[in-house]
Automatic annotation (TrEMBL):
This is Ribosomal silencing factor RsfS. Belongs to the Iojap/RsfS family. It comes from the Bacteria. Interacts with ribosomal protein uL14 (rplN). It comes from Rhodovulum viride.
Length: 122
């Protein structure tokens, strides 16, 4: 864990992120355990918003909550377009998509073994 960031486990960070996404009515939330698969992060979370406005709002509120509750700063890419927003929280990477963009890129299929998708739904 980066010494400059508050001491929060990746599991606690994941729980806070999932709670924020639930509060903001994110849809089809999937969590993927990356431990042992990637050195980039411990977890990836993928979810959908119904519109570009909701996708951007989910990302912005997540960023604000993590800053306020945990003192964590996030890097955000794509919020202005609202089709696919990437939120890098360090140990957890969050992707918020519009449904048709999510379907096009199918990130879950790249990171999860076949048949594991249903068990990953948060």
């Amino acid at each position: 864990m980066n010494a400059l960031l508050p001491d929060v486990s990746s599991e606690e960070l994941l729980d806070r992120i999932l709670a924020s996404l639930d509060d903001d009515k994110a849809e089809d939330v999937v969590r993927i355990d990356l431990r042992g698969k990637s050195s980039v992060a411990d977890y990836m979370v993928i979810c959908s918003g119904r519109s570009t406005r909701q996708v951007s709002a989910i990302a912005e509120k997540l960023k604000d909550r993590l800053k306020e509750d945990l003192g964590r700063s996030c890097k955000i890419e794509g919020k202005d377009q609202g089709d696919w927003v990437l939120i890098d929280v360090g140990d957890v990477i969050v992707h918020v998509f519009r449904p048709e963009v999510r379907e096009f890129y199918q990130l879950e299929k790249m990171w999860m073994p076949a048949g594991a998708m249903n068990s990953a739904r948060a």
